[in-house]
Design brief:
Blueprint (H helix, E strand, L loop, with lengths): L1 E5 L3 H13 L3 E5 L2 H10 L4 E5 L7 H10 L6 E5 L4 H9 L4 E4 L4 H14 L10 E3 L2 E4 L4 E4 L2 E2 L4 H12 L5 E2 H9 L9 H13 L8 E4 L3 E4 L2
Parallel strand pairs: 1-2, 1-3, 3-4, 4-5
Antiparallel strand pairs: 6-7, 7-8, 8-9, 10-12, 11-12
């Protein structure tokens, strides 16, 4: 899995990164709360291991900001503070689990995997969709094109996800209406065409090529 380790103790962070890497994880380290927020916006992670006591912005504040911004990313809070009220504060801030240092990497690995399973995500990044230069994380409701985050509305995200799941194949309007909107009938308005137009604008905002192919009378396809 892709993990973000937020830890200001450089020696401890290096040790834990090495141990988690040996357990087949990719680990990015952020030394402060603000640095963690930046990493989460520009990269894709399956989960976060977050120190409770951090400079500039503590772990509880980091989690609150993530939740306020709509991020559902699993967060395991790791701290030397082990009293009951401290654990409660960490969990009430939005963390999914709370463990006290030092905790063996193997236990952290098991806890992270449990959190990911509980969210309905698939281990080892299998739930990440890629089609050409487009990457989608359905669990995080986030998407990128050539590494650039895409600011998509809910229907735009659902449409792009469905096209990516079947990249290289055409999906008819009827298929998209059923899978994206959940209708078992075709509405009178051209809702699919209108949504595709809005999605195209965002995918090509930086002058990139249009990755959506239209086949008249058939439907739409996302290029592989």
């Amino acid at each position: 899995m892709d993990l973000l380790l937020v830890e200001d103790d450089a020696d401890y962070a290096d040790t834990l990164r090495s141990e988690l890497t040996a357990l087949d994880h990719r680990v990015v380290v952020a030394p402060t709360g603000p640095a963690a927020l930046v990493e989460i916006e520009r990269d894709r992670f399956d989960a976060v291991i977050l120190d409770r006591m951090l400079p500039h912005l503590d772990g509880a504040s980091v989690v609150r900001r993530l939740r306020d911004n709509g991020h559902r990313l699993p967060v395991l809070m790791l701290s030397a503070l082990g009293q009951s009220d401290q654990k409660i504060d960490g969990l009430e801030s939005g963390a999914d689990d709370y463990v006290v240092k030092p905790t063996p990497a193997a236990e952290l690995d098991a806890r992270i995997k449990a959190l990911v399973r509980a969210r309905g995500w698939i281990d080892d990044g299998a739930e990440t969709l890629r089609a050409g230069d487009i990457t989608i994380s359905p669990g995080q409701f986030r998407a990128w094109r050539d590494g650039r985050p895409l600011d998509l509305a809910k229907l735009e995200f659902k449409l792009l996800t469905e096209l990516a799941r079947h990249a290289g194949s055409f999906l008819t309007r009827a298929m998209l209406i059923e899978r994206v909107w959940g209708y078992d009938f075709e509405p009178a308005t051209n809702i699919v065409d209108a949504q595709v137009r809005m999605l195209r604008r965002k995918l090509t905002a930086d002058g990139a090529d249009d990755p959506i192919v239209t086949k008249r009378g058939i439907g739409y396809m996302l290029r592989v």
